[in-house]
Amino acid sequence: MNRPSLLANPIMGLTSDRSCVTELLALHRHVYFSDLRAVTTAGLTLTGRLFYGCWVTPETFAGAKLMDAAFVCCAGIGEPPSDAGLRHAIADGGRGDWERMLAMLRQPETLDPDLAEHLVAVAAIATMDSQMEVRLSAMTLVARLLHTHPELLSVDTRKVMGAFLLYRAADESDMVYYDAVALVDELELTRDVLEHLVGRARSPDPRERVAALVARERLSLGVRSIELPDPPVTKLLDDPDPEVQLALLEFLGQNVRNSFDAKGMLPGVDLAAKLNPFLRSRDDRVRRAAIHYARNVGGSANREALIEALLDPDETLRNVAFEALYLRLQADELQDLLLHHEATPAQRAIVLEHETRWRESEPGFSRVADPAALRDLLASDDPGASLGDADPGVRAAAEAWFGRESPGIRSAAPSGLPAVAGERSGDSSGGSSE
Questions:
Q1: pLDDT, tens digit, 9 for 90 and up, residues 144-162
Q2: Burial of residue 192 (number of CB atoms within 10 Å: 0-12, 13-18, 19+)
Q3: Nearest CA among 262, 180, 261, 260 for reference residue 214
Q4: 84-111: per-residue pLDDT in tens?
Q5: Fewer Cβ close by (within 10 Å): the C or N end of the chain?
Q6: Alpha-carbon span 26 to 48, nearest angstrom
Q7: Which band of pLDDT confidence, cut at 50, 70 and 90, is reported for residue 316?
Q8: Where are the alpha helices (DSSP H) in 280-344?
Q9: Is 60 a residue whose pLDDT tops 90?
């Protein structure tokens, strides 16, 4: 098949700075919109390949075995365009000057179908240019042609081009990715286009996996007209690459916000257990993001990893880990933690703040178990002593918890002291409510 199609599982957007580039070339028979000018393929056997909209040099395939390879609408190889203007534009583009090519895209009504396809195919490379203005202009003009003159390209070609433009949803520039996300509605992109985009998360190239997750997350914030496919989260939870892990935690933070969401997207997966490698990551960014995320979906499986985090040199991170333990442990585990961990003033304030919130919604519920545990947590036999704590945050939370109406509060437990955790509305689980 010498025509571009998403059904061919193409690889798109290859450049010389991509990792696994030769592996990707060996895996995929269809290669589209790729800048291969600085790529070397010596020793590769590339049989039955279709290169579409690719930029190459004579050195690209030196030493490679090319058998039954087709080069369609490429630059530097294959049949050149018949239009002299496009030939000159390609020569300029090879030197990094895209203005002549962009000018041709601004006048799509002057193009015949063959010229339009070759122009759009080679101009797609400009969407990967190092200059944001070039990327934005190329993406916008190609999208405009697809939208206003769809008759110039076949349906399959439009889908392939739309999918490639959507790669820019992972662009580092806000202006570029905002406009890329809008293309889903503007071009009425179909489910198979979106599945191709999200399916990149299965690539052996970690950079492509990250891009797929970032693009999918941004689409979820801006697209409402079509149901978005989910990335292969179960597989990605075992991904060892820290950049992928970071992107995955960002995606999970927006799309799997509690245990109910986890059961829906990850049936049969113990998400808390899967988080432990993230919580113990040597990458500070991953560990920090995982500790924050554990507050929402963590569980008993994370107990040891989060307790280890209580020794982190970063006080803020220690407090987040403490809060995750407070919110996600079972009742008996939480009681044990509070009885054996010497809470700091900031951590006591965290407990008091949450306990106040529980008490406001349901007076008989508490996560800190019985009065003795609460007194131990406050590091005093007198539960009202926290009103005189040196930390103003603890004092403020204690005032809200114990109240200030009774002068005898410093010598007696408050009348409304909560019941043992787990007695809320007959729930014996001891876990926090979702």
A1: 999 999 999 999 999 999 9
A2: middle
A3: 180
A4: 999 999 999 999 999 999 999 999 999 9
A5: C
A6: 11
A7: very high
A8: 284-297, 303-309, 315-328, 331-340
A9: yes
Backbone angles phi, psi at 356, to 5 degrees: -60, -40
With CA atoms as reference, report the closest residue to 401 among 367, 354, 434, 369: 354
- How far apart CA 293 and CA 385 sit, in angstroms, is 33
In this predicted structure, the answer to whether residue 416 has a pLDDT above a threshold of 70 is no
Among 115, 182, 173, 108, residue whose Cα is nearest residue 146: 108
DSSP 62: T
C-alpha distances out from residue 346 to 314, 318, 381, 391, 417, Å: 13, 10, 19, 8, 21
Digit-coded pLDDT (tens) for 186-221? 999 999 999 999 999 999 999 999 999 999 999 998
Check pLDDT > 60 for residue 422: no
Tokens describing residue 112: 């015949």
Sequence-distant contacts of 49-54: CB under 8 A, at least 24 apart: 50/1, 50/2, 50/3, 50/4, 50/8, 51/77, 51/78, 52/4, 52/10, 52/121, 52/160, 53/4, 53/120, 53/121, 53/122, 53/124, 53/125
Please state, in angstroms and as integers, the Cα–Cα distance from residue 149 to each residue in 34, 48, 100, 212, following that order: 24, 32, 20, 29
Which helix (H) or strand (E) element contains residue 226? none
CB atoms within 10 A of CB 290: 27
* Averaged pLDDT of the chain: 86
Classify 31 as helix, strand or coil.
strand
- Going by C-alpha positions, the residue among 202, 208, 205 that lies closest to residue 236 is 202
DSSP code, position 254: H
pLDDT at 383 over 50: no
Instruction: Give the pair of three-digit tokens for residue 164.
Output: 């490639």
As given in the structure block, the two tokens for residue 4 are 């571009």
What percent of the chain shows pLDDT beyond 70? Answer: 84
352-362: average pLDDT: 83
Angle at 222 between CA 217 and CA 226, to 5 degrees: 90
Q: Which two tokens stand for residue 422?
A: 């787990």
pLDDT value of position 48: 94
Positive/negative CA dihedral, 223, 226, 227, 229: negative
